Amino acid sequence: MTAPRIGITPWLRELPTPLGDLTRLYALDPAYAARVAAAGGSPVILVRDARAQDALDGIDGLLLSGGGDVAPATYGDVDAGDCEDVDPDADAWELALIEEARRRRLPTVGVCRGMQLLAVAHGGALAQRVTDPAMHPGMRALPAAETLSRRHEVELAHTSTLARALGTARLSVNTIHHQVVADPGTMTVVARAPDGTVEGLESSAWPALGVQWHPEKMDEPEQAGLFELLVRLGERSRDARGQPLEALARG
What we know:
The protein has about 250 residues and is α/β, with parallel strands linked by helices. It has helices spanning about 30-40, 50-55, 90-105, 115-120, 145-150, 160-165, 225-235, 245-250; strands at about 5-10, 10-15, 20-25, 40-45, 60-65, 110, 125, 150-155, 170-175, 180-185, 190, 200-205, 210.
């Protein structure tokens, strides 16, 4: 049996190359693919040059990576001037992927921006800035090394699939985000920071969950559990399409 194919969304950025100072390139931290591969999956980068239906053909699981802020218009709000690195086309593309994944009951994990888009796709909304800058400083508020090493506590619902995957109901996570989930829509909040920031969401209707932190950038061993869960769900979903998250994750 071949390894489950896990589709990963990249981000389009304008970066300097020999062809120009602002060359549009797909960008993705290789840690995402490395974590999927370490968990036993086969990572596949999904680009926008396809319909969502075609992009997910042959894919056993979907990993929505981080990226820029979600455009407020995407969830029916007005930009208050605090958003950074927005790309409405990326929002539309990834929401189409989420909708197609939901239609297929395809196991899906959202990281940071990915979790925020899961909330939006389920009728939720975002806050355009964090509520507690001391606990969740902006990405440019600290030196890069401190941003990567800084941790804050998160408490998870004991009965959640996320807690079972990570093997704990309390852990320390990083803060590499600018926006937060204000309304989870029909998703269930399963993790929060001490300041109330939503740190984890799950759906009981289809195999989908998200985390606000960046597990791919953390060396703590429990973080591997999230990718192992996605790969395990992807493997099982090939023979059990349509089961809810809790049923797929059991055992």
